[in-house]
Amino acid sequence: MIILASASPRRRELLEQIGCQFQIEVSDAEELKGEDIEPDKLVMENAHLKAAAVVKSYPDIPVLGADTVVSLDGKIFGKPRDEEQARTMLQSLSGRLHHVSTGIALMWQGKLWQACETTEVVFAPLTTADISRYIASGEPADKAGAYGIQGRGAVFIKEIRGSYSNVVGLPLHCLSRLAAKAGINLYGNGKGSSS
Question: Whole-angstrom distance between the N-terminal and C-terminal Cα of the chain?
């Protein structure tokens, strides 16, 4: 049993997919925006901040924080603030390789375990009409990089190198290894092997 310090429905679905026992407690941590921080450091710090804000209320249960960003040529793309920013992000990603980085932080019994997973994603070239239709669907609004690989945005993905679940928002293999190191059982209560 763990506490997921996230409101993300995609992270919830991924944990449900593997049969993890969890409950959700949304973190109120103020996230770093990361103009001057490398993507992997940014997501690990934000994951830690999210977990730390929630672990105070659940000192005896492992707490999982996670943060995902898209980056292109070192520039971080978070969630678009409006349709125009979503359009700019998608135009930038069109026909290019970009990186998706997710930081995860497990906090339990006064200790912290952290990891970061990065996946390379290659977009096909997008037309103006492709981008307009996609923005009209509403899907880009709450997604890092203005797209969701698990939704309609999947049609833009030409190639993926690395963890698919990482691009969705939670690298499951990485999480299972980290939980094992921490002695956290993702599938029940208390200690025990998670693999």
Answer: 14
